UniProtKB/TrEMBL annotation:
Phylogenetic classification of the source organism: Bacteria, Pseudomonadati, Bacteroidota, Flavobacteriia, Flavobacteriales
Protein name as it appears in the record: Uncharacterized protein
Origin species: Aquimarina atlantica
Alphabetical keyword list: Signal
GO molecular function: hydrolase activity
Residues annotated as signal peptide: 1-19
One Pfam family this sequence matches: Phosphodiest
Keyword Signal tagged: yes
Domain of life from the UniProt record: Bacteria
Length: 607
């Protein structure tokens, strides 16, 4: 086994590093005699949850007939493209060529999410006549995520066993004339969840390799009588957690590591890792091809022109290299990096509008414009594209609501783009599926006022209060999960004694959980409110300064929202998307703040 592993590693290194020798390598099937009338066909086999490194370690004669490159899933951590290493987002990326920010599938809830992006099925059907497609998925949710496009598919089957899916696949290849056949095998992942890494998992991989062999044999038999050029691709949706291999979904190197196998030698993007990148996270994993490279590779093989406005994330792995490794250079997400050896030009598009043309080899573009909202940058080189989406630079947290109770440690963050985030305080990250729109189904009674929200706080008896920029407020019943009848209503000296004069100046509110609440005003002052007396304490508003709020004085007029976090800390979010941690017991700002609100400090809240 060790000798085999060594030889296989040598072989893989050889494949990846030696250009020019590719003609001598075994290509399967042989296509040296292709003519213009040759039918371009594709077999895509997906093996769920297969850890790349096990291929080299095991006896997998059918995978060994292919050229295999390590690759990555999960998008780019810290970018809008970031997604869980789960099957829902993974298979959707494999079949749409885009990440979560474009396809919108964050997890495995197939009843809740369906792809917002066109699938490879639609791209083929809308751009090439007389095509036929078969899609066979042992894990049936794959088809549910693609439900917008499944009516375009000529043959589909979902569920059952991998053996059944393989038999159906062989039958479809042998007895129909499909142009794309996709087959998903699930058992490797099932065994991985049940047994982790080990002999059962390895045996499941060997069995999947044999099923791959049956499918490849069916193509070999077709080629005996038909003038066809088959692209065979094999991939997986995600790796597994290195701690035993039982689970996945997280953002670790082994979970993000996948592979792409092809019967074609591929271009430089497939064959050669790029090490010199502005982002070397996960041991340089982004230097390998992306999971989103599969769709453009299929399109190119089928001789379908790749349109710029499809905003596909990655360039093909065959033919002339397009824009490679499109990444943001800076945290501001307005400077682009890419790799190209092309002597032609790179067209740079913002939200599908051509903004400039630069030499492709320049590999860098700084956008000096001020952009409102999210911006999708698309680079076009050599008839293919890569796209990346920047976060909304003007996005801000405008209100926070602590929903803390014994059952679920949740906090809600409301943003100026009309969306909100549910934050898991135990896991210290945004729950999957967020942001969501603030509307009358997510927050009954609040939807019409989402643009006006300036502050929120949790009161006693499961009531939350939302304060609006027009001096009104809403009372939200956290048990009934809706706005109480009769709201919004104007703040006056009966309902909020002592607040009336400042009712349209409130920009932050927090329950200090010592029978005091604090209201922060847009002029750098604050009001202390006695919950016991239900009135503002006398002598307020007062200025926020470093005597009454140590460390906060310089930021008195920059506060955007405030949230009580736990018995010890309160967080202040500032208008420039930094935040301050305030120690309630010491009654002082924790040193080292403000810090940036980003994907490390507050995962997901600005995505
Ligand atoms: Zn799984």
């Amino acid at each position: 086994m060790k000798t085999k592993l060594f030889l296989k590693l040598i072989f893989l290194v050889f494949l990846i590093s030696i250009a020019g020798c590719e003609e001598n390598l075994p290509t399967y099937p042989n296509n040296t005699s292709k003519q213009t009338s040759t039918h371009k066909k594709v077999l895509l086999v997906g093996i769920d949850g297969l850890q790349f490194e096990r291929i080299a370690a095991l006896n997998t004669p059918n995978l060994d007939k292919l050229h295999i490159s390590k690759a990555y899933t999960g998008g780019i951590k810290g970018n809008l493209s970031h997604q869980a290493t789960s099957s829902g987002p993974g298979w959707t990326s494999i079949l749409t060529g885009v990440w979560k920010d474009k396809h919108g599938v964050p997890n495995n809830s197939s009843g809740t999410y369906k792809s917002k992006a066109k699938s490879i099925y639609r791209l083929i059907k809308e751009n090439k006549n007389n095509t036929s497609i078969a899609s066979i998925a042992t894990w049936s949710p794959i088809h549910e995520f693609l439900q917008n496009d499944m009516s375009l598919v000529d043959y589909q089957n979902e569920g059952g066993s991998d053996a059944n899916s393989t038999n159906l696949g062989v039958h479809q290849i042998s007895n129909s004339n499909h142009d794309l056949v996709f087959i998903h095998l699930d058992n490797v992942d099932i065994v991985g969840h049940a047994s982790g890494f080990g002999s059962a998992y390895d045996n499941a991989i060997i069995a999947a390799d044999q099923q791959l062999g049956q499918l490849m044999d069916a193509i070999t038999q077709r080629l005996a009588t038909k003038n066809e050029d088959w692209l065979i691709m094999v991939t997986t949706d995600h790796g597994r957690n290195s701690n035993g291999g039982y689970s996945h979904g997280g953002t670790t190197e082994s979970e993000k590591t996948i592979f792409i196998g092809m019967n074609k030698p591929g271009n430089q993007e497939f064959k050669s890792k790029i090490s010199n990148l502005p982002n070397t996270d996960f041991d340089g994993l982004y230097g390998y091809p992306a999971q989103t490279s599969i769709v453009p590779t299929i399109l190119r093989h089928m001789e379908i022109n790749i349109e710029t406005n499809w905003q596909l994330s990655s360039a093909p792995l065959i033919g002339a290299d397009g824009p490679r490794k499109l990444l943001f250079v800076n945290n501001n997400q307005n400077e682009l990096f890419w790799v190209s050896n092309s002597e032609s030009n790179a067209e740079i598009y913002k939200n599908n509008q051509l903004v400039t043309t630069v030499p492709a080899s320049q590999g860098n573009y700084l956008d000096t414009a001020t952009n409102d909202g999210k911006t999708t940058y698309t680079i076009r080189i050599e008839e293919s594209t890569a796209s990346i989406e920047s976060r909304n630079q003007n996005l801000k947290i405008i209100a926070c609501l602590d929903w803390n109770d014994m059952l679920n440690n949740r906090a809600y963050f409301f943003r100026n783009d009309g969306q909100y985030i549910r934050y898991n305080k135990l896991k210290d990250k945004t729950d999957s599926g967020y942001p969501k729109e603030t509307n009358n189904s997510s927050w009954p009674g609040l939807g019409a006022y989402k643009e006006l929200i300036t502050a929120a706080l949790k009161w006693n008896n499961h009531k939350g209060y939302f304060f609006l920029s027009d001096g009104k407020y809403l009372r939200y019943d956290m048990n009934a999960d809706k706005v109480d009848k009769g709201y919004p209503t104007l703040i006056n000296n009966n309902n909020w004694t002592g607040l009336e004069g400042w009712r349209d100046k409130i920009i932050g509110a927090v329950n200090w959980n010592n029978n005091k609440a604090y209201f922060f005003l847009n002029d750098g002052t604050y009001i202390r409110y006695s919950i016991t007396n239900d009135s503002a304490d006398p002598g307020y508003p007062r200025s926020i300064n470093n005597s009454n709020w140590p460390g906060l004085g310089s930021y008195a007029t920059s506060i955007s929202s405030v949230i009580d976090w736990d018995s010890k800390y309160v967080y202040f979010f500032l208008t420039d998307n930094t935040y301050i941690k305030y120690d309630k017991q010491k009654d002082a700002t924790v040193s080292g703040y403000p810090k940036n609100v980003d994907d490390t400090t507050w995962p997901g809240i600005l995505n």
